[in-house]
Amino acid sequence: MATITKDTIVGDILDIAPETAPAFIDIGMHCLGCPASRNETVEQACLVHDQPVEELVEKLNAIIVANRK
Length: 69
Prior knowledge:
Layout (H helix, E strand, L loop, with lengths): L9 H7 L4 H6 L8 H4 L3 H7 L4 H15 L2
Organism: Evtepia gabavorous
Protein name: DUF1858 domain-containing protein
């Protein structure tokens, strides 16, 4: 799987790595099934929820690596 970046679409991440959902919920993104939120980039989601994008990107990649072992 490719590395998640700030430009990766949230819905794409959830489709290939549903185990990342709690990381989005932790930043206040509770409507993960909403079409609008699924089409945002990670950076857009962080801006809307006033969260540092690099921290979420690191967390998402760590979750994916841990679950692929």
